[in-house]
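User: structure tokens for this one?
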Amino acid sequence: MEIKKFIIKGKITGRLKMKLKKLSHILYLISPILLYFVSTVIAKVTPNTPIPSNAILIYNSKEYICSSYYAGAPYYNAADLCENDWPVAWPDISQYITAAHRAQGFIDILLTIDMTFKVITSTTVTPTVNIRVDSDNRGNYDLMANADGGLYDNIDPDTKGYSEESMITPSTMKTGEYITLRFAVPPEINYYYKVFLGQKNIDPYQSSTSYSDFYQVKIYTLPLSIGPYACPDIKVARRYLSEYDSTARAFKIPELYRYVTVNKPVTFDASRSVDTSGATITKYEWDFNNDGIYDAEGISPTYIYKVIGTYTVILRVTNSDGQISISNGSNRSSVSSAPLPLTVIVVFAPAEDKLYQNGPNPFIPSKNSKTIINYDIITNEHVTLNIYTVSGELVRRLIDEPKSAGLWSVEWDGNNDAGENVASGIYIYHIKAGSFNDTKKMAVVR
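Assistant:
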């Protein structure tokens, strides 16, 4: 072997060291090329065209315009204005989110960039744009939504990547082309649903043959089909896998998971299923472990998981016209438009009784419709959980009933027992479950 020439009794000679040094230098020089190649190869989304005629325009960015003189090299002014701005910075699109979107668990957004020339008449220039991946860095390269103060992610894995230089598409996009982004939608929206498409994610390509004097970002959505939409959930709200991040003062991205306790009855809930055709949902069928066998019927059946693990729950609903909806959809917009399933994580009963800090805290009712209090109990107990003023006056009875051992959540809307808004200030919440007692404080800001 040639390498043996450079190795004497286990020692590396100077000639081999020089060759290794040269190899490392070559790798250093070509690493940007390799990064670009990998970025292109992992891109999974092919732009579509044309924009469907029934698409609903839900947002226009401002117009990024410059004179024809400054549009091309070496200035690219309009392109720079678009790239360095925040073209889709939290517009509220809640008016376009229907009960069917909330039932299916997502909304699809069609992203396109209008680069039609305003003054330039050249036939040799074709303006294009790069769409960079959703890096989930909670920064300039992130694609996400904010629903009533909780962060909800772009959930399509085909549009995600680790390198901020990676592209969603294998090539640049032209005017009239679009890609689809799928955003998670909560089952309830009280105030707003705002989207953010990053600062650097929309990156006009700049070259002697690709520039424009005009750029405008547009997002559309498509009307949903008429009929039933299955929405599986758990009757008594248990916590999401991701909880409140007090540092960021926002909810972490909620996964479509629910925790339940092994060997304890779980009551499921199909009440958020809807029908947009005017027909009535007449049948609810549940497959609690995605084995293709429907285990129960009804709007709120009970089931006991006897083995810890992760289970996919499928709900099939049928309306009075015989139309069927099955919650066996996918996070990937290219795979399915069906409602998303429910994922249940079965865990052992908690090891200790515990009361958690509420979230969000401070609780600002004008921004968040509710604050959530999580608690664990290790045995079946009668539970009371109340809100008090700092002087000890009772404000709101949240819980006063028997509860089985497990992980629980309760919501507070900022009202007292009479349904009146409480004033800004510090409040105390106290739990009693058997011999377990605990108290924590929260702030309400009006």
